[in-house]
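Hi R.,

As promised on Friday, here is the backbone we talked about, encoded as structure tokens. Could you run it through your design pipeline when you get a chance and send me back a sequence?
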């Protein structure tokens, strides 16, 4: 099994298969617009621009499960990201990352890379998952890990 078996809804409401990203290195991030880590959007955009031609794609999944820090609708989220951080990497519809309504993609990501102490939940906004070009989840990063600190791991996969 790989992440290519999952379908997701873009921030504009179109359902797509993650198979379209086959052969790319993916950095999947659960995001929020009103979080202390929200400025990471800037670094995520920078590494996306710098490395997209080498095969890196950042995928942003807004989530409102942590202290109501992503309460807006998809249009508001998209506008916020574009206006404040110049985000051009793919963004998706809001998802739950934990609990009974968690999107199947995040259930899979969590199982493939348990967090601290082997916990099978996403700790907070801006948890990051690195996926190799074959669709294997290779590493999970905490919200405090800066996107620029992931670059060496990405480069090792291309």
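Update: got your reply. Pasting your designed sequence below so it's all in one thread:
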């Amino acid at each position: 099994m790989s992440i290519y078996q999952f379908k997701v809804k873009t921030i504009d409401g179109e359902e797509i298969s993650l198979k379209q990203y086959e052969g790319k290195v993916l950095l999947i991030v659960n995001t929020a617009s009103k979080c202390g880590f929200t400025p990471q959007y800037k670094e995520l955009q920078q590494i996306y621009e710098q490395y997209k031609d080498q095969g890196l794609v950042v995928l942003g999944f807004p989530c409102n499960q942590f202290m109501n820090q992503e309460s807006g609708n998809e249009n508001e989220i998209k506008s916020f990201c574009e206006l404040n951080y110049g985000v051009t990497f793919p963004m998706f519809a809001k998802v739950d990352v934990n609990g009974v309504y968690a999107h199947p993609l995040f259930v899979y990501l969590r199982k493939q890379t348990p967090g601290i102490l082997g916990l099978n939940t996403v700790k907070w906004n801006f948890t990051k998952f690195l996926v190799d070009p074959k669709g294997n989840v290779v590493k999970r990063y905490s919200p405090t890990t800066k996107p620029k600190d992931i670059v060496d791991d990405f480069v090792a996969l291309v």
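One thing I noticed while checking it: The helical segments are 40-51, 74-85, 104-112, 151-157.

Thanks again,
M.
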